[in-house]
Amino acid sequence: MTTDVLERPDAATDEQEAVFVTLTVAEQLCGVPVLAVRDILGEHKITRIPLAPPEIAGSLNLRGRIVTAIDLRRRLHLPAAPDDQPQMSVVAEQGASCTRCWSTRCPR
Amino acid sequence: MDDLIADFLTETNESIADLDVALVKLERTPDDQATLSLIFRLVHTIKGTCGFLGLPRLERVAHAAEDVLGKVRDGALVATPDTVTLVLAALDRIKMIVAGLGATGTEPAGDDSELVNALNATAAGEAPAATKAVPEPEPEPSAVPLEEPEPPLVEVAAPPPTLAPAGAPAAPEAAPQGEPVNPNQTIRVTVDVLEDLMTLVSELVLTRNQLLQLARTQENTGFTVPLQRLSHITSDLQEGVMKTRMQPIGNAWNKLPRLVRDLAREMDKKIELTMLGADTELDRQVLELIKDPLTHMVRNSGDHGLEGLAERRAAGKPEAGRITLNAFHEGGHIIIEISDDGRGLPLDKIRAKILKNGLATEAELAGMSEAQLQRFIFRAGFSTASVVTAVSGRGVGMDVVKTNIEKIGGTIDLKSVPGQGTTFTIKIPLTLAIVSALIVEAAGERFAIPQISVVELVRAQKAAGHGHNEAGSESVIERINDTPVLRLRDRLLPLVNLNDLLGLGETQNDDSGAYIVVAQVGANSLGIIVDRVFDTEEIVVKPVAPILRHVTMFSGNTILGDGSVIMILDPNGIARGTGIGAGGDAKAISSAAKDALRSTDRTAMLLFRAGGEQKLAVPLGLVARLEDIPRDKIEVSCGAPVTQYRGKLMPLVALAGNLDGETPRQPVLVFSDGDRSMGLMVDEIVDVVEDRLNIELSGARPGLLGSAVIGGQATDVIDTGYWLTQAWQDWFHGAAQSSEHGKAARVLVVEDSDFFRQLVTPILGAAGYHVTAAPSAAEALRLREAGAMFDAIVSDIVMPDMDGLDFARAVRASGAWVRLPMIALSSRTEPGDIEAGRDAGFTDYVAKFERDALIASMRQCIAEKIAA
Asked: Residue B393 class from Cβ within 10 Å (0-12 exposed, 13-18 middle, 19+ buried)?
């Protein structure tokens, strides 16, 4: 499952250095500050939300919390993933007290 | 024990505990202003409360202590240890009295005068008196008189021990003898803790539901019994936690008496406020949210609803107006009624305001029921108070109230009887945390609809064509102008298709039937067409992510028992989104009106009855307004009936000749021109129909143009021009003087239809033109050959033999009229037609029946000609 999602905590030796979770979106390598990441999910059932902006993939149930899923490909204006490609989600928290989470879908 | 005393004791015990700590701190840091202020405030509160509760002994002690502290705070005294000691002594005394109060419910007897004197003396700056008095509670006097401020540092160490026994015996005495003292009966918990508890319990309930669902599929497992127990305990727990959040609605009301009193004084009214069911409990969160709307509505009732003293007397009502608040439980909801016995909603003012703000047109208003009109007060920026008072009338009123109440899943409705008062009814859920919702499916997606707004479920055939196997009783979805409706118990129910509404695409199932969820939105109902209906489930409403807030169709989302996320539909939002109900009436009507305009080759005719069963008709475009005036408002002036209308006298003409109808109100068709109006009294306004006008002229009676077949029935069309001159002999001449040159401009009207010729002639005549009419283009050209001269020509386009376009070309080709402005008058106003008209030489192109447009165009054309 973690073939492409690599965590490198060891890299944080220098005090200037931050730790990132790396992921790929349509072959593009991206990083997310590890402290913002709450969860990494595999295939997960996502409920479609009608009338929502196109980049909103839907919402999913993360252990009793409702998390809004954002399709990162759409958000970054990248071509849509082929149907048969398994998708993963990175759940990140935004703001300290804010409960809003977002989830990115990325090919593994 | 009195509730107030109990509350006071709890509070005071807390204050005293704080005071002990703070005083000790003060002793160490005498200059700490923050601590000093805190102490002063606490003592002050105690004093204030016991004064209010009628506890003289406590009050005296607290008061004296406060004096000292006040001096210290103001810098007049230094917080020396002995001062602090003295205050501590006072505090101990307060503790003792409070303990006695807790045990017996009354202040224990005792004399505090010496302590008070000591405190007073200290306050006055006499240090010695203070020290002398300190030990008073116990006969044992202070050993050393403390003259100077310095020595006490050591010395004062003595008095506290002496004091402590003084207080201590008192407390143990009190505690054992009375029943357990108050502090244990209530504890204060922060709201956050309760909120967290509630959330946890909500989750527990959901998990329980999930488990029960699982267990249902499996027979006789060992889990069944413990699960049952878990279920019961969870229910009890839920109830218990819910109770902790419940507060009597009286808490939201307690500010109202004062508010009403101030209001009464300010408005010079007498107002009695009656509050019923103040102990009805509801969720704290809900309570907070309805507090402001309630206050606002009570204020409104007092300000707008209730009349002034004189007006009430004149109406034969008691001088004191009554505002009644009534709260009660009904079927899992709380109903709050706010009623007044005032003047009721002023429909006239509402109408005027609607027109002024352009929320609806006269014609739309004429078709609205009183209830619909009244609901306009829930529209944004709608306040009928003509004067903006400090109290209300700022136009940020009922719409905010409505929004706030809808936000918590509630509904608001109103009932108003002129002269008798207005009643607002608010229906809100008991708690926001858990609601029961109906789960439905549309295009394969599941949605929840809060049960509060669901009235019933109906199964209906999708289209009449599929109905060959129907039993006859089943309803069929019909269509009016492509809008699906359902005939439900003789009422038309507007329907929305959830698939279309949410853009979900077509339904896969080819079932010929559909489920319709009938939802109540305010006073309106609407039907939501869904594919399937599941059961109802208890759900915990969670707010949607901020990124989705703009989607008004959803009020939240939740997690179902099976763990899937589901969106909660908001019927109010759906109604708003589709223009059904919820203040959206006007939108629906105006789009209908637009449809009416689009079909130009048809004419909207107003059908009415006057003097007999025969229906009469008049083109709707000619009628300025429809009015329904009370018969007693009809007066006689110079032998002719008149009425006061918009601040002027308006002559009334009876179409059928008889004035004295039995009905209390008189329907009137109002025709206006500039600031002149006349009213045509008719018996009954029947309908507005759209039909092709084919007038067959008959020289029947004056006042009738002839008959036409309208709506399949022969109908007489009235000659508006004739009736206008009945009211104002000079109707068609009065305006003539106003034309530019003192002499009226001459206009040639070429029109083959007798009806339109009859119609256009008076219209132009009324605008001050001399009109010559020609029944055909050939006739008009003959006039040209004969040397007639005009200032402008108005011509129909569709005419036999030579049509308007050819006529225009002929005029432009040669002759005296080459440069005359020509206005085309036609029922065909497609851009292509207009283009063709211009090409042929017409100056302007005006749709038939656009009276104002014709006049405006005429003025402009003639003005341009003169300028050229």
From this structure: middle
- B463-to-A80, B44, B479, B529 alpha-carbon distances in Å: 39, 76, 9, 13
Q: What is the pLDDT of residues B761-788, one digit of tens each?
A: 767 776 777 788 888 888 888 888 877 7
Residue B732 DSSP SS3: coil
CB contact under 8 A, A59 and B545: yes
Angle at B659 between CA B653 and CA B660, to 5 degrees: 160
Taking the Cβ of residue B657 and every Cβ of chain A, the question of whether any pair is shorter than 8 Å is answered with no
| B153 token code pair | 């540092």
AA identity, residue B429: P
Cβ atoms within 10 A of the Cβ of B783, count? 16
| ipTM over 0.90 threshold | no
Q: Which chain B residues touch A57 with a CB distance below 8 Å?
A: none
Q: Tell me the pairing of strands B491-497 and B483-488.
A: antiparallel
**Nearest Cβ partner of A53 from B503, B547, B553?**
B547
Q: pLDDT band for B127, please (50, 70, 90 cuts).
A: low
Q: Which run of H or E residues covers position B515?
A: strand B513-521
Q: Please list every residue in chain A whose beta carbon sits closer than 8 Å to the beta carbon of residue B505.
A: none
* Contacts for B377 with CB less than 8 Å, ≥ 6 apart: B345, B350, B384, B397, B398, B414
Question: Does residue B192 belong to the interface with chain A, where contact is any CB pair within 8 Å?
Answer: no
Q: How far is CA B125 from CA B30, B37, B67, B121, B740, in A?
A: 17, 20, 11, 6, 95
Give me the pLDDT at residue B658, please.
58
* Spatial CA neighbour of B571 closest among B518, B535, B516, B531: B518
- Going by pLDDT thresholds of 50, 70 and 90, the confidence category of residue B139 is very low
B812-843 per-position pLDDT tens digit? 887 778 888 888 877 766 777 778 888 888 88
Of B482 and B733, which is predicted with more confidence?
B482
Q: Which residue of B has its CA nearest to A55?
A: B547
Treating both helix axes as pointing N-terminal to C-terminal, what angle do B33-53 and B3-28 enclose, rounded to 10 degrees?
160
CA distance B155 to B89: 16
Q: Do A47 and B559 touch (CB under 8 A)?
A: no
Q: What is the pTM of this model?
A: 0.42
Q: Residue B740's CB: how many other CB atoms inside 10 A?
A: 12
Q: Is B646 left (phi over 0), alpha (psi -120 to 50) or beta?
A: left
**A66/B445 CB distance under 8 A:** no
**B293 and B404 in contact (C-beta within 8 Å)?**
yes
Q: B141: helix, coil or strand?
A: coil
* Residue A46 distance to chain B (closest CA, Å): 8
Rounded-to-integer distance, Cα A101 and Cα B503, Å = 26
Q: Do B551 and A61 touch (CB under 8 A)?
A: no
Nearest to A59 among B203, B553, B565 (CB): B565
pLDDT at site B736: 40
Residue of B nearest to A52 (CA): B548
Pairwise CB contact (< 8 Å): B504 & A52:
no
User: What pLDDT does residue B580 have?
Assistant: 56
Min Cα–Cα distance to chain B from A22, Å: 25
| A:B CB pairs within 8 Å | 53
